[in-house]
Amino acid sequence: MRSKLKVIWIDAVTCYGCSHSFLNYKEISSLFDKIDFKYHPVLPSENFEIKESDLLIIEGALKNNYSRLGFSLNELISKLFFKAKKVLALGTCTVYGGMFGNGIMFNKEEKGKYYKCREKIINLPGCPPHPDWIAYVLNMLSENKKIALDEFNRPQDIFSYTSHAGCTRNEYFEWKIDSQTFGTKEGCLFYYQGCQGPFTHSSCNKLLWNEVSSKPRVGTPCFGCTEPSFPKHNLFNTETFMGIPSNIPLGVNKRSYLTLSGIAKSLNNERLNKKLIDYNCRDKNEN
Amino acid sequence: MSKEEKKELIMKTALNLFAKRGFYNTTIADIAKEMGMSVGNMYNYFPSKESLAKELLTYSSKRFGNEIKKINEMDIHSREKIKKIVKLYFETAINEPELIDYFMRVYLSNKEIFANGCEGMLCVSAFVTEIMLFFEEGVKRKELKNQDFFAAFGLFMGYIGGLAFLNKEGILTKSLSEYIEPVSENIYNALKA
Ligand code: SF4
After folding, report:
1. pTM of the model as a whole
2. In which element (H, E) is residue B41 found?
3. Count of CB pairs separated by less than 8 Å, A with B
4. What DSSP string runs through B86-116?
5. What is the structure's pLDDT at A285?
6. Closest Cα in chain A to B127
7. Integer Cα distance of B35 and B41 in angstroms
8. Where are the domains of chain A?
9. Is A136 in the pocket of ligand 1 (CB under 6 A)?
């Protein structure tokens, strides 16, 4: 039997949301067969001491003049970082600084303190990251499998998607039919309500939260919480310049996007322009 | 002459006739006659008069769009871009009046011809998209005021279209090109940040 993955989990400047998310992992007990928490701030673990680990998980941002476990936070992280085989920056604060301070490898989009040591870092942004994402990294590492990473050291299996993929409002996005008021069941949230799904890397709408839903599915825009720019202001509003959204879906240029949306809008999808229950397919000669 | 070139020539001929006589008073036979072609052969190029009218619209919108794209790609102030767009429009009105006439007398006045296949932005999107990009860039550079797209679009296009119309009617007291400067300034003053 393979030996368990020795994990040290440190709470830096955090709201503990990432720990909470981890505790929501549905198969958490199966993970305990594979990993051994040498230290965790919440879960039962050994007394803390600086020692080697297979994986150092950092939850939270770096900050000066902040003490943790009898050390300054910066000193603590530095000592553990170099004794760890791999480091998982868990959550947007740890990856990019997020709400609280500086990230491990990045400060927003700039290079951060440990950028030079990036070959041992795995970044898992999200506020919080989905429990399945955390489990994915732990499972892969405990089985000694290689995790393919993108240019921001995020696992490609998770972050090649956008949170727009799988949203139940996709049809409305295609035909450029947007909900104008908060709380509607139908209509896309992109144009009026600030949804950042089409340019946010994440698999939220593919995996779903609590296996049930996601923000856009229930009518809250995607806040882009996995991105370096998080948190932005005015999360319920789409920034537009003369009516043109300032951010557009990944992979296309603005000219193509505007052309396509103009055409989609002009074609005026009658079914989606009214409430779904009001549409009668006999109204229209379909096909 | 390639098939494409021939098509373009037919479109130019049709454009002239449509602009001069109107859509309904022009027949495929008239266009064929003007081209020195048989009516039957005309149908090898365009299946109907309507499809010709629609393609003409897409074609002119692309031509305008391409010219505005060049202006959009210049690293100059929005005030200068406005002047270049107005100049482009007025010069077209002077040199190819049939193009503007077609737009006003055929497209805007006979929407029923375009209802199926050219609704909304479908056939004019090349042009409208470039205008959108022009406005967006101006706002981003803080040169133009951030406002509703159509409020700005109407002001710009309605104004220069109106002037071209007055020119065509022979009402203007000066030549259209003398209006480039003051009209551009007025548009800029109305749209500036
Ligand atoms: S609500 Fe957001 S995620 Fe859903 S389809 Fe619209 S833009 Fe995409």
Report:
1. 0.89
2. helix B39-45
3. 59
4. HHHHHHHHHH-HHHHHIIIIIITT-HHHHTT
5. 55
6. A259
7. 11
8. 5-159, 161-276
9. no
Considering the domain A161-276 in this protein, what is its CATH number?
A: 4.10.480.10
The Cα–Cα gap between B93 and B164 comes to 6
Domain locations in chain B as residue ranges: 48-191
- Output the pLDDT for position A1: 56
pLDDT at A93: 97
Q: Return the amino acid letter for A220.
A: T
Q: Would you place residue A272 in the very low, low, confident or very high pLDDT band (cuts 50, 70, 90)? A: very high
- What dihedral do alpha carbons B143, B146, B152, B156 form, nearest 10°? 0
Q: State which fold the A5-159 domain adopts.
A: Rossmann fold (3.40.50)
Q: Which residue has tokens 């990045």?
A: A106
pLDDT of residue A283: 62
**Is A198 near ligand 1, meaning CB less than 6 Å away?**
yes
The Cα-based distances of B9 to A8, B16, B25, B38 in angstroms read 76, 11, 20, 15
Residue in chain A lying closest to B133 (CA): A255
The closest alpha carbon to A18, from A113, A149, A139, A125, belongs to A125
**Residues A27-49, mean pLDDT to the nearest whole number:** 93
Interface residue B157 vs chain A (CB under 8 A) = no
Amino acid, res. A60 = G
Collapsing DSSP states into helix, strand and coil, what is residue A277?
A: helix
Dihedral sign from CA coordinates of A131, A41, A62, A143: negative
| Most confidently predicted of A29-33, A271-275, B181-185 | B181-185
Mutational test site, ligand 1, from A171, A195, A215, A237, max ligand atoms within 8 Å of CB:
A195
**At a CB cut-off of 8 Å and minimum separation 6, what does B19 contact?**
B97, B98, B99, B101, B102, B105, B106
Do A244 and B147 make contact, defined as CB atoms within 8 angstroms?
no
Q: Which CATH architecture has domain B48-191?
A: Orthogonal Bundle (1.10)
β-strands A53-59, A5-11 pairing:
parallel
Burial class (CB in 10 A: 0-12, 13-18, 19+), A60: buried
Beta carbons within 10 angstroms of residue B147's beta carbon: 16
Confidence band for B20, pLDDT divided at 50, 70 and 90: confident
| Cα–chain center distance at B133 | 17
